[in-house]
Amino acid sequence: MTSIRFLGANREVTGSSYILDHNGFKVMVDCGSYQEEDLEHRNYDDFLFDPKEINTFILTHSHLDHCGLIPKLIKHGFSGNIYLTPPSKDIFEITAFDSAKIQKEDNINAGKKIIYNSADVVESLSKCKTIEFGEVIELEKDFHFSLRNTGHILGAGYIVMDIEDKTVIFSGDVGSKWQSISQFITPISKKVDFLVIESTYGNSLHMAREESENEFVDTIKQTVSRGGNIIMPTFSIERAQELLYTLRKLKIANRIPNVPIYLDSPMASKVTKVFVKFPKEFGEDARKIFEAGQNPFFVDNLRYVNMSQKSKKIASKNTLKGQHDSKKSYIVLAGSGMCTGGRILGYLKKNLPLSKNTVIFPGFQANGTLGREIKDGAKSVVIYGEEVKVNAEIRTMGSFSAHGDRDDLLNWVSTAEGGKIGKRVYVTHGDEDISLQFAETLKEKGMADEVEVPYFNTVHELW
Questions:
Q1: What does the pLDDT look like over 420-445, one tens digit per residue?
Q2: N or C: the chain end with fewer CB closer than 10 Å?
Q3: Which residue in 40, 114, 108, 28 sits closest to 67, CA to CA?
């Protein structure tokens, strides 16, 4: 018997985790952490399975909601191989050590238990086996898999499992056609029996990149003209690099004012160095810049902020009431991307109360996060235990997202042989209403005979 147990990102966005069981041979796909406030307890709860029973592990990519609990898996007894691409390993190393550091500093102060420490991260890295896109790995007789490029973030892949005469695919996160850095997703180009697919933007379409860039330029100009600051909650992986690439392009074309740009995220700075190691993974335009001896992520007036004291000082700049001096304006990119922690909180606390400022959300904001609360129009929010009024202009620019929209997802599915999935699609990794809408869209377009939206911790028999 072959089955899939759904252990995360089911009718919610974060915490991706699945176990495929083929006649007792268990393969785990992803083991992500949760960012929704009402689900965060799952990061600390005991696993609902025995990690010692997992035979092998495959990682789609190194965003925390896909890899964040791998060291916990190791800590509790998993001893098999962790398969991932070379860029994913480098990024996982950064994110996992950063997570362990935050736990040591913040969890102890907050009275929370430590999920894992740096020693668990070191042990996790020792089990990593890097593979290239398209490389076929045999797990046991008549059971092999490969990773193929999803165009989502650097090193991200979808998993193609060929088991006896059946093919099962796990999408991971599917990239957007509007991204500037990553290559486009690799077509499936084969018969597929079962598909597990994300649905983050499964009910919406992103604005075209040119249109979005024009809006971005106008927003920056208008904010600076009234002496305000531009605050951008930014994911450290791919989003930060995509924004730096875009700001560089706009600055060279003299389309945006000459104001300081701060990358206030030590993790994003480290990840950007990883990107430079793998230019072959870039899209054509970014690769040409690199081949010309230039850094596609460096922009004039870019300043890296490493020390927390410097961050606090910048966050307080240009925040006096009645102060409207465009010469004091700045742009800042800071994490965390969903405003669940990190240095962005200091900027939001100081800048949200002033109407001259603008907060731009360039990425998805999950239910239960501070970012979602602000994006949805809250008049005030609580930051560091204090009520903060939201008077700043709030903008969302989805085309900067590394996630594909509804049509990107459908176009990718259509590259399967026959333009459809042979037996069944499982829709995951989306708010419940969005996953259900995307499931209906797949049915209406005849792209699968059966479509299901699994509940958390349910087992579905494949054959």
A1: 999 999 999 999 999 999 999 999 99
A2: N
A3: 28
